[in-house]
Amino acid sequence: MKRSHRRCEVILGTLIIxxxxxxxxQSTYHVIRVTNGGTIxxxxxxxxxxxxxxxxxxxxxxxxxxxxxxxxxxxERLIIGPGGGVENTVVYLKNxxxxxxMDLPVMRASLNQKNCRYEPHIxxxxxSAELKMKSSDPxxxxxxxxxxxxxxxxxxxxxxxxxxxxxxxGVADLKCDAGHVWMNAEVLVVxxxxxxxxxxxxxxxxxxxxxGDYEIVAWHExxxxxxxxxxxxxxxxxxxxxxxFSEPKTWEKRVTVATDGxxxxxxxxxxx
Length: 272
Description:
Layout: E1 7-11, E2 14-18, E3 30-31, E4 38-46, E5 55-57, H1 62-65, E6 72-74, E7 79-80, E8 86-87, E9 90-93, E10 98-99, E11 110-114, E12 117-119, E13 122-126, E14 129-135, E15 141-147, E16 151-155, E17 162-166, E18 170-175, E19 184-190, E20 195-197, E21 203-209, E22 212-220, E23 225-233, E24 238-245, E25 249-257, E26 262-269
Parallel strand pairs: 3-10, 4-26, 11-14, 13-19
Antiparallel strand pairs: 1-2, 4-21, 5-6, 7-8, 9-20, 9-22, 11-12, 14-17, 15-16, 15-18, 18-19, 22-25, 23-24
């Protein structure tokens, strides 16, 4: 998944998106009837040295953002379970041109801002579909989206729902400009349904795969803070420091799916 860029302008407070070739940005994926499809399942495991989670202090709206009183927030960029499974890794089939109809989980295409977190942390939205967004928090948030889509959306009202169409495939990075510098998430806008996000044990399952040979990819967002940037808190009107993360990493394997077959795949990932 590659990040893409667009040009935007703000006219009378409205964000206008200009995308080169938007009218021609149609998916090359074709839906067919799959009656003899197989299943690919497996696990993404951590194979490197132990990693301490990246933490940032909660410096604002602690009554909402820090209900447990921990004073810090895990940035959720790398979550390794007790058994070594890696959560929030995206596993997908590469260069798929035909297959089953889009059946991605609805929960992955709906974003909530709750206790100053983006939930879920990794989203999967079909190309040309809508991303639904809201905030359960009674404070100002915003979603500043860059990459495959450029939106800058304020959420001043609790439980207000906003929808935006995700027209171009790729990765969109989400941040909050209202001073909650620990808030972050990734949206993958995808052309086909052969994607999965690993659970808390690092497990995944992709079903309805037409028989054939495939490249299967494990994609994980960057988890290391490489630098900080100075940004303006649009709520408090003061400068704050926000982390910038390392680039995403990918690991690839080849698999053969037989008619009505079942394939097991294990990815071992690390800093390398």
